[in-house]
Each structure stands twice: as C-alpha cells, then as structure tokens.
Hints:
- This protein is 39% helix and 19% strand.
- By secondary structure, the chain is an alpha/beta fold.
- The chain has two domains: 2-234, ATPase, nucleotide binding domain (Nucleotidyltransferase, domain 5, 2-Layer Sandwich); 235-490, ATPase, nucleotide binding domain (Nucleotidyltransferase, domain 5, 2-Layer Sandwich).
- A seven-stranded mixed beta sheet has the order 15-16-14-13-17-18-19, with helices on both faces. Strands 3-2-1-6-12-11 form a six-stranded mixed beta sheet, sandwiched between helices.
- A hairpin with a 5-residue loop joins strand 15 and strand 16.
- Helix 11 packs antiparallel against helix 14, helix 14 (368-392) crosses helix 15 (410-420) and helix 16 (431-444) crosses helix 17 (450-460).
- The longest helix has 25 residues, at 368-392.
- The mean pLDDT is 96.
Amino acid sequence: MKYAIAVDLGASSGKMAIGHLEKDKLVIDEYRNFVNRPVDIGTALYWDVFSLYHSVLDGLMFFKKYDGTKTVGIDTWGATFGLLDSKGRLLEPVYHYRDRRTVDVMEKLYKNIDEKMLFQWTGCQCNRTYTLPQLYEYVIEQNPILKFTSKLLLLPDLLGYFLTGNALTETTIAGTTGLLEKSMDKWSERVIEKYELPRTIFGTLEHSGVSKGRLRKDVIVDTGADMEVLTVAEHDSASAVLAIPKLKEGDLYISIGTNISMGVETSKANTSDPAFYSGLKNTAGFGGRTIVYRDFSACWHLNEFIRTCRGEGKNYSFEQIVGMAEEDACTGPWIDVEDLDLCKAGGNYKEQINLFLSRTNQKGISEDYEFVNCIHQSIAMKVKHYKEAFQEIGFSCGSIYAISGGTNNKKLMQCISDVLGEELNAGIPYASLNGNLLAQIYVQEGMTEIHELRGIAGNSFELRKYLPRNRQDWHENYLKYEEIMRHSAL
C-alpha cells in the first residue's frame, strides 16, 4: 500500500492527514491536529517554528503504524521565511508576517520601484506581509544579517530542510514573495538588484512533485518512520485550488476561511491596467499554472463580532452566530469588509460597524442578528464586486466553486449564491490538506496531466449546489451597495 502524509499549517493551527488512492478515489485514513502559537516577546513577534517542527515529527511517529511506502508533503501560508548561514544554521528566529518592523516599509518600497511597474514585472501587488518588504526592511535598517545569510528558505521548504538536510525552493510558495518574474518560473533579477538584496540567498526553483530526499537518519531513529519528502503545491491556496473537481480555465474559485482568496487558474499572469486598478494579483499554481486572485477579510469579521459579544457576557459559538442570520434578508446595511478600521483587531467591533454605517449615511443597528446579517451580506457583496473585476479582464467565471472551512457556513453560501445570482458549488472544507495529498498521489502514480488529479478529486469530494433566490431584489441592492462603497472611498 502507498500512503501520503499531508502537513497543512495555518496561522493558528496545523493539521496532518494520511491517505491513499483506492479505485481512483482519495481515501483519508486518519487526521491529526495541533496548535500553532506565535511568540510575542514584546519587542518582536515570531512563529514558534521549532514547536511546529516537533508537531510534524510527532505526526510522523503517530502515522508509522500504517504499513507501506510513505511520502510526506508540507503546505503553509505564504511569505514566511528563515535565513540560514553557511553551516545551515538559523541566523535568527522566524518572524511573524505581522511583526511591526514592516509597518512603515511600503512607502519606502515604492520609492524604489513604482507600484505599477513592480506589478508589471512580478504580477504581485505587495502588502507588508510579503517577503520582499520584510527583506527590504533589513536593507533600510542596514541590518548586517543578509551579509551572513547563505540561503533563504520559505517555511515549508525550511521544515523540509529540517527533515532531510536538503534545501529546495518550490515555485508556488516562492510566488508569495513578490520576488518572481510574472512568468512565475524564475527569480526577478531586476527586482533583487533594485532592492539591493544578495542574489546568492535565493536558491534554484523547483516545481511541485520533486523529491527533497528521504528523512535524515536521526529523524528516522527519533520517529521510527522512513519516507521520502516531496514538494507539493506548498502555498496552501495553490494546494486548495488543486483539490477542486472539474475546475477549468476561467472558472471562479472562492476559498473561504478567516480570509477569502478568490480567483481563476490560467496559463499566464494578467498584468493589465484593469487588473492593477482592481487590486488583482498573480501567483504560481500547481504544474506551471498561474493563479490570478484577490484576497480580503471574510469570516474574520464574524470572529471579531463573537469576541465583542463575549466581552458583553454572551458566549456565542460560531454555530449560534450563523443560526442568527436571516436567510431572506437582503436590504443591508452593509460594510466594506476591506475597510482598514474594520480590519484592526481589538476594540468594540459593534461600535466599529456603526461608525462605518454612520460615515456612509446608513442606519445604525443594535440587535445581534442584524450584525450577522450585515457581515454575511457584505462578504457576499464583496465577492460579487471582485467576480465582476475578473470578468472585466476577460475571464468567463463560467462555473463557481466555494471551498475550505467557510463552506460549513451554509447560510453564507446561500447568501453568496443569491448575491451572485448564479449557482454555487460548495464544499471540501479541508481543501488545502486534500490538495496536498493529491499532489503526492500525482507523483506516486506517475501522472503527467492535472486533469487526472481533478478526476480523482471528482470521485472523492461531494459539492453541494446552492441556487440563487430573489435575483431582482439582490441585483437592485447590489447597485445600492456599490454606490455606498464608492462614496465611502472618497
């Protein structure tokens, strides 16, 4: 029996799973969860990368009870990296992407290369969490650490290095750096030069499906496990997209969780003016594909509402919050889920919503169910806004798929279908984990075409269809929403 072990790391927790292929269907035998606790020391915010590594080792030890040939692959969020010296040692703790050292870096970043030019070169529209601004902060501060750096490894490749001793850089995770050419297959020499970064720290790029080698001997001794480590689609978004059955070029995916990443899988980057002005981005996908996407806060707003309610002594569960939503409500009021004030953690979130409503001449709200309605509708309205942006640059968005954990919120899924006025196919709550397993099966079975994997995905995952209701009412209210958002941006 051939088994695949997936490691899927998120910002607050990690998951592992072991699975195998059986009659052209992915069978997941067992899951394992662990926490991911960032380390705040007051002067800096770090990821506890060694705790994550030990959790991976514990998982490998746990899954050794399955007899057969095994492989393991790791996917994570993007942009996080470690710096190694010439002896392969970490030079400093691994910074959290929200560490405050980069708060003021973006203005300085775009003085070096115009924002639009950087987009045309790389396909990226950076924010401070990307790798490029984090590295440029070292240059601005004249931090000597880059002089002592032999190699930069992004988080899944860093953990792979800990496991095997071999250093590789996989393309989908490299696509989150802001340092690739828009072809997504090579480092941007001109960007690296412009920002005075040492070229030697960026290793050779490898596509998904390449072996990183077998576990180190001492890892085998410690865990009792012996297996090969593979490059998968190491960026969790690319891994999630891989798990979508029947996804065709130009179809729209919506990966819903704390944030939404929505976009299309295509053959090349789109760096047109309309894409730039709509805030769209490009990153690498599995098998040399490109993903054109947009991301923004989504269920984060529900989490902030829950936090505020707990401060009032109301300990709502997520399920209770979802249960409050009115299925037929479509008249607003609405917020901009990308509004910077609303996206700041802390404070009274209800008050923040009402401040936005007051600023945009909308009626304030007070009942808890009204806040949930407002958040659900506002997320769905933003999805429609960006769907139209993708259509404006030539993508048909013919079929629409919602994936990842947010699809468990059935009322939100229905709301999105209603606002779009189109059928929505939703499911696969563990899409990144499943995409990770599928990428390993791709290698194990010697596959050569991505549609072979999508066929397995179709045999393995059920999608629920949501059909739109009250199309005319939603269309009219969407036009009102867009007008309000235009005025709020002035």
